[in-house]
Amino acid sequence: MEDKQIEKLRLVTGDVLIVGIDVSKRRHTARFFDSNGFELRKSVKFYNDRAGLLGFLSKVDSLAQKHAFERKIIGMESSGHYWEPLAYFLRDYQVEQVFVNSYHVKCRKEMEDNSQDKNDYKDAKIVAKLVKDGYFFNMHLPEGIYRELRNLTYERYQERKKMNNARNRLVALLDRYFPEYESVFKDLLKQTSVSILKSCPFPDDVSRLTMTELIGKIKAASNNRLGQKKAEALKQVAEVSIGIKEGLDSAHYRLKSCLEEIEFHQKQIQATERQMTKQLEKTGYKSNLLSIPGVGVVTAARFLGEIGDPSRFDHPSQIIKLAGFNLKGSRSGEKQESATKITKRGRSELRNLLYQAALIAVAKNPQLKMVYHYLQNRPKNQLKSKQALVAIANKLVRIMFGLIRKNELYNPDLALGEIREAQLGHVA
């Protein structure tokens, strides 16, 4: 058994009151156990408001005094968002809280009675039993600047999601009414393309314009970077288009709606990123992170928003695990059953952020670009492109963590380390 698991078991051994809570939007359900797994009283349902939470705490304190418990631990699932007000409220009353993994709850539920039945009463018991057996992890509630960055990171994610949804609707509309359009304008949301979509989005609109008028529109939209060649290409595909000819009035309306929605979300994203820049400045880590070639303001702000206060980590491997970039393998005896893969058990947005940051790093950071190519071409255990990018993402975490911990700026001469320098020199 791992040392960390032993430490967790010690926390829930002895005179400890263990409370499992099944969280919901309006009413939570709690069940109470001792460290031996014996239930101490009937379950309690309490409302998700101040009176309900204070009443729940009163019952916890009363039960702890009755059985002379030295400590109290409350466990809950970390899924959804309904747990957050409850967790922050209990934190203010200095109540020890832990999380249990939702996947563990699902598996343990079926083991309990060989049934897939789900209800609040049963789930609260499963949560408490998992805590009793040491299958929990410490709760981290972002505070101050890091809560601000977490909120802004989530807001940016939601705005980009909405913008991509609007863009997909725009693509679907053009696929119906002007499927050849993207052969002329590869990026629909570039300035010139947006201008054309606003004035003459469909084949009939293009056909009604003279070549001179169309050239003028394209030149004006592109600041004279594009002109006759692009106009001729657009005219040509419009004349042979197989786009739908019916319902053009409503199609124009839908296209206008999509473009307005995209522009709105683009402005919201820009405003959010300005706020992220302000909050990043307050952390004191801005110069450290931005000194890394390829790491920009948004990447640095999102990174701190996802991990919270960096000082709570003792080693970069903890951040790598939080992202779900730690490795797993399948072995039976001496046989390797399958290729080693990442676990993907962690914060998906942090994982996505680090992967995207790795893509930029191998393009803009000379040292990480060298490592990336080395991993793909080394004599043994060559990695595929995506595997190498995961390795670069993990390297990037170690660099960012080191710069924050030591309060230093990026130094190209120290970025790789002696061992990696030797490996690269050997390959070269």
Keywords:
about 60% helix, about 10% strand, Helix Hairpins, globular, 6-stranded mixed sheet, alpha/beta, two-stranded antiparallel sheet, about 425 residues, 18 helices, Nucleotidyltransferase, domain 5
Radius of gyration: 28 Å
Structural class, by secondary structure, is alpha/beta
Report, as a whole number of angstroms, the end-to-end distance.
Answer: 43 Å
Q: Please outline the major beta sheet.
A: 6 strands, mixed
Question: What's the short story on this structure?
Answer:
This protein is an alpha/beta fold and 428 residues long. The chain has 18 helices and 8 strands.
Write the layout of secondary structure elements.
Elements: H1 3-11, E1 16-22, E2 27-33, E3 44-47, H2 50-66, E4 71-77, H3 83-92, E5 96-100, H4 102-113, H5 120-132, E6 137-138, H6 144-177, H7 191-199, H8 203-208, H9 211-221, H10 228-239, H11 248-283, H12 286-290, H13 297-307, H14 316-323, E7 327-332, E8 335-342, H15 348-364, H16 366-377, H17 385-406, H18 417-427
Parallel strand pairs: 1-4, 4-5
Antiparallel strand pairs: 1-2, 2-3, 5-6, 7-8
Helix pairs in contact: 4-5, 6-11, 6-13, 7-9, 9-10, 11-13, 13-15, 14-17, 15-16, 15-17, 16-17
